[in-house]
Amino acid sequence: MRRSSMILRVVVLLYVGALVGLPLVFVFQQALIHGLGTFFRALGDHQMDTAMILTAKVALIAVPLNVLFGVGVSLWIVRHPSWLTRAIDTLIDIPLAISPIIIGLVLELAYAQNGWFGSGLAALGWHVMFSLPGIVMASIFVSLPLVSRQVIPLLREMGNHQEQTAATLGAGPVRIFCTITMRSITWATAYGVSLTLARVIGEYGAVLIISGNIALVTQTLTLNIGANFDNFNDYQGFVGAALLALASIVLLLILGVARHRERKRHDYLA
Amino acid sequence: MTISLNGVTKYFGRDLVLDDVSDDVPQGSLTALLGPSGSGKSTLLRIIAGLEPLNSGHIELGGRDVTNVAVRDRRIGFCFQDYAPFRQLSVFDNVAYGLKVQRVPKAQLRREVDDLLSLVRLEAFANRYPRQLSGGQRQRMALARALAIKPEVLLLDEPFAALDAQVRGELRSWVRELQHELGITTILVTHDQIEAMEIADRLVILNEGRIEQVGTPDTVYDKPANDFVQGFLGPMTVLNGVACRPHDIELCDVGLGIDARVTDVVRLGFEVRVVVQTSSGESSWVQLTHAEAQRRSPFIGEHVSLRVRTTADLFR
C-alpha cells in the first residue's frame, strides 16, 4: 500500500472513531455498566416506555405522510418543471438549513392558541400545541426533504421515455407508476424512509417546543432521555440513548445490506 | 394503416416548430422523415404517437381522427432513440408488457412472446436484463416490445443513431426486410440522408418545421424541389455559377468544357476529390472514383477541362 493512502486511512479512522465510534461505545458501556439484569429492568421504566410508544406513534404517522409527499413532490418537480417547481425545489431544503428550535418556534407562532392559524383551529376544537398533531407536524417539517432528495436525482436520471413507452403499450397512469416508475425508485425511497425514520425518532428541538415536554403525555423518547439527564437520572438516560442508537444501527444495517443486494441485481445506471 | 396529417402546427412557447405540415402516408409504406436537427421531425413523430399535443391541425389513422385520442388508445408501436428499455424487467417481461396490459391469458402470452423473441433473434436472452444486452440487441428488444401489441403503425425515432457503424448497417437491412414481411406502415426519423435513401421507399424532407419535398429516394435525389433539398441530400459544388453534384462533373479533353487548374487532390478511401479553380477564379471540386482517378491521375497544377455530365452521357 502506498504511504499516502495509508496515512489517509489512519486519519479517516481516527476522525470517525473519535467523532462517532467512541461516543457510541461509551453510550452502550454506560447503559450496561450495572450488568444486563439492571439494564433489562430499566427497560421496563413506565415513563420511558410511554415515551417510546409516543415516538413510535409519531413515526407511524409522520413517515408514511412524508413518503407520500416526498415521492409526489419529486414527480412533480422532475416531470412538470416550471418556475413554481424550481421555487419548491429550493424551498424544500429549508428544514435542513435552519435550526429545529426555530422550526419549533415558528410552528408555535402559527399554531398556538393565540397564533395565526391556532386561534381559528382552537375555535373548531383542534389543538395543535402540546398534542400529538403538533409533534407529528414538527416531525414532518424537520424531515421534509429527506425522501425527495433521494428520489429526485434518480427520476431525473431515468428520464420519461420508459413511462412514455409504457403508455404507447396501452398502460394507464396508475399501472405505469406501479410497474415502471416505482420499481426504479424503490430503493431510493426506502433509503429516504430510513433517513426520515432516523430523523423523526431522533428529533429533539422542534418537538421540545411544540410538545411542551409533558411526562407521560407529550414526552417522546428523546425528550425522556433529556429529562432523565436533567433530573440526575443519568443511568436511565443512557438506557434510552442506547435504545435509540441501537434502533439507528439496525436500520442502517438492514438498508446497507438491502442496497448492496439490489445494486448487485440491477444496476441503476444500466 | 394509412396515416394522414392535415395542417399539423406546433409551437414550443413562441417558437414555431411545425408549420402547417400535411402528408398522406400510404398503407404498408416505409417513410423516412428526414431533416437536419431542429427541423421538427422528432416532434412530428411524437405528435403522431400522441406523446405531444399539437396546436392546430388533425391526424387520422386509417381514416379515424385520433387528434384527441390518448397515447394508450392509439395502438401505435413507438421506439425511442435510446430504446427506453424497462430496466427493472427482464427481456421477456419487457416484450410481454403490452400483452399483460391487455390481460392476455398466460399460455397465449408465453407463446406470443416466444414468437416475438425468435422473430428478433433474442430467444436465448429471455431471462437477461436490458443492461446485459448490446445496443443492437436492445434495439431489437424494443422493436419486439412495440410489435407485441400488434400495432398497425410503427414509429421509430432515430432507430440506428446510437449504434456503431457495422451494427447499424446490418440492422438497417434487417429492419427493412422485417417491415416488408410484416407490411406494417412505418415512419422513421433520421438526420442521415444515406440511411434514409437506403431504407425508405418514401422520403419526407423537413426543414425548419416545413415539408420541403415528398417523394421516392430517386425522385428527391434526381429532381430536388429546391436548393435546400439538393444540398441536404448530397455534396454540392458550383461550376460556372450553376449548382451541381461533384460526381456529375467529369474531366474532359481541353477545349471541350470549362478550363480549370487542379489545386489539390485528396484521396478519401474509394473516392478521390479533385479541387479545381476555373479561369474565372471560381473554386469547385470534382468527385472521381478510385478507378477514374487512376486512369487520369490528375496532379496539382494540371490544366483540365470540366463539364457537367448529362443524363444522355450515362447511356453512351
Description:
The complex is a heterodimer of chains A (270) and B (316). Chain A is mainly alpha-helical and 270 residues long. Chain A has 14 helices and no strands. In chain B, strand 4 (56-61) and strand 5 (64-65) form a beta hairpin. The A-B interface holds A 158-159, 161-162, 164-172, 175, 179-180, 183-184, 266-268, 270 and B 49-51, 70-78, 80, 82, 84-89, 97-98, 101-102, 129-131, 142, 145-146, 148-149.
Keywords:
heterodimer, A: 270 residues, mainly alpha, MetI-like fold, 14 helices, 79% helix, B: 316 residues, alpha+beta, six-stranded mixed sheet, five-stranded antiparallel sheet, elongated
Largest interface by residue count?
A: A-B, 22 and 32 residues
Largest sheet of chain A: none
**End-to-end Cα distance of chain B:** 44 Å
Q: Give the overall form of chain B.
A: elongated
Structural class of chain B: alpha+beta
Q: What's the rounded overall pLDDT mean of chain B? A: 91
Order of helices and strands of chain A: HHHHHHHHHHHHHH
How many angstroms separate the termini of chain A? Answer: 32 Å
What CATH calls the topology of chain A is MetI-like fold
The CATH class of chain A turns out to be Mainly Alpha
Q: Radius of gyration of chain A in whole Å, from Cα?
A: 22 Å
Q: Classify the helix fraction of chain A into a percent range.
A: over 70%
Spell out the helices and strands of chain B N to C: EEEHEEEHHHEHEHEEHHEEEEEEHEH
* Helix percentage of chain B: 25-40%
Strand content of chain A: under 5%
Which value, in Å, is the CA radius of gyration of chain B?
Answer: 24 Å
Oligomerization state: heterodimer
Which range does the strand content of chain B fall in? 25-35%
How many strand units of chain B? 17
Nearest-integer average pLDDT of chain A: 90
Structural class of chain A: mainly alpha
Give a short summary of the structure.
The complex is a heterodimer of chains A (270) and B (316). Chain A is an all-alpha fold and 270 residues long.
